[in-house]
Amino acid sequence: MAIVDMTAREMASAVRNRELSATEVVEAHLSEISAHDREVAAFLLVLADEARHRARSIDEAIARGEEVGPLAGVPIAVKDNMTLRGVETTCASRILAGWRPPYTATVVQRVESAGAIVIGKTNLDEFAMGSSTENSGFFPTRNPIDLSRVPGGSSGGSAAAVAARFTPLALGSDTGGSIRQPASLCGVVGAKPTYGLVSRYGLIAFASSLDQIGPFARSVEDAAALLSVIASKDPMDSTSLGVGFDAAGIGEGVQGMRIGVVEEMLDGVSSGVASVLDSAIAALEAAGAAVERVSVPAARYGLSAYYLIAPAEASSNLARFDGVRYGLRVEGEDITETYLRTRERGFGAEVKRRIMLGTYALSAGYYDALYGKAQQVRTLIARDFAAAYEHFDALISPTSPTVAFRFGERSDPLSMYMSDVCTIPSNLAGHPGMSVPFGPAENGMPAGVQVLAPALREGVMFRVAMALEAAALEAAVPEWAKAAGSGGAA
Q: Are 314 and 127 in contact (CB under 8 A)?
């Protein structure tokens, strides 16, 4: 088996047992990036020298008999809205070009302490605002399965890096589906944890009450292993819940579990994606779960509420990028003109659109009617999910209504926003959710099944995901899906 086809757990075990060196693992992935990332464009920055140095340090530590952590020698890609001290961090925006933060994100500290090796910073929709990575301020990322199609967004670079075998693991952020939707479109596993389970310190904020960091992987077990590393109390994040995640028991199966199919998340779903969900339902029933339809009525209004709450928070968070403290500065005749010119040139069209929408929603005379009403809807969504979980252990739905679309197909904002209609409600509720590749839909492209669970019930969510992955591997599915679940050669 080629090194790049191994799972993260297999790599780490081989490095710890000195069957492979961390240097060999890193060089294999750097070679893959060098050979293919010109076409995929998953990375904004490849940290080749730094990764090699880190790999040598791990090999030396192992030679001395030191403990090197559960992810020893495993390369990991980091979405470029998470800070690394002294490493350019742009959020794929020209307004932050050249900015080198003086601190490192807590999640990056966690994975490095566990022995992982950061191999590069991945592309995204500018400031994580988008669903296709077409809104990057630098260049689009392409879907490794079909280069004419998008990888999803906003964490498209991280999803593409894992799907293309540039890294076995990646970190992304999810504000309204930005981990799960690209995971679905690229045929990999992506998970958004409960709000507060993973520290946001060092994550450049888009919408602070919604943003969460989570893992990408090619198998459910690898995603669980990464989540167990990054989930913990952080005194630097006041929203940190102070609990961890234990992956033990996620392979126990779904016998006797009650699983609901969310009716409100079936509208507008393509026939191919609907067929994939039907197959997933049958697989869960065959595995011993009771599966029924369930209504979460307020979820229908999730998209509308989100596109008031998230832009409102963005308009506040992005006010700090003014040409004075960070990145780009375009001089004007006075300070006000400097602000205007810097923000005009530095922000892309989608970011400007959301800043203006959010500022309007927070303005005098509209705050109660727009932002206030959206927050009331958010409360109703949380209540409706709570009511559903009184009868079901977990819920499922499509992750995305369609498979990956071609570049330029969704030029109007509304059609792009609809890509996240299934994922947004769990962000508003603060609950965990993940996408598991289950099979091909239209044009042989992957489609994900979304698994949802109550707050801090990630263990239940991963149990359902493991059952789905096992069923997908047994079915007649394409090679990319088999490799995603098993780490086998594609």
A: yes
Residue-number span of the structural domain to which 164 is assigned: 3-267+270-296+382-486
Give the pLDDT of residue 324: 87
Burial class (CB in 10 A: 0-12, 13-18, 19+), 18: exposed
Domain assignment present for residue 316? The answer is no
State the sign of the Cα–Cα–Cα–Cα dihedral 92, 344, 325, 131.
negative
Q: Which of 56-70, 107-121, 174-188, 313-327 has the lowest mean pLDDT?
A: 313-327
CATH code of the domain in which 175 resides: 3.90.1300.10
pLDDT at 481: 54
pLDDT of residue 327: 87
Helix (H, G, I), strand (E, B) or coil at 392: coil
Cα–Cα distance for residue pair 77/99, rounded to 1 Å: 19
Residues in Cβ contact with 221 at an 8 Å cutoff, skipping those fewer than 6 apart: 7, 9, 247, 250, 251, 466
Query: Rounded CA gap, 359 and 55, in Å?
Result: 46
User: Does position 96 have pLDDT exceeding 70, yes or no?
Assistant: yes
Environment class of 349 (CB within 10 Å of its CB; exposed 0-12, middle 13-18, buried 19+): exposed
Q: Which two tokens stand for residue 449?
A: 């099944």
Q: CA angle, corner 214, sides to 285 and 176, nearest 5?
A: 80
Separation between Cα atoms, residue 351 and residue 343, nearest integer Å? 10
Q: What is the mean pLDDT of residues 216-238?
A: 97
Where in the sequence numbering do the catalytic residues fall? 79, 154, 178
Closest CA to 370 of 352, 358, 354, 382: 358
Q: How far apart are CA 232 and CA 242, in angstroms?
A: 6
Question: Residue 285: what pLDDT?
Answer: 98
- pLDDT at 326 (0 to 100): 82
The domain total for the chain is 1
Q: Is the pLDDT of residue 485 over 70?
A: no
**Beta carbons within 10 angstroms of residue 473's beta carbon:** 16
104 domain-assigned: yes
N residues, the chain: 490
pTM over 0.90: yes
**Domain-located, residue 45:** yes
Q: Give 46's DSSP letter.
A: E
CA distances in angstroms from 432 to 7, 120, 429, listed in the order given = 24, 27, 9
pLDDT higher than threshold 60 for residue 476: no
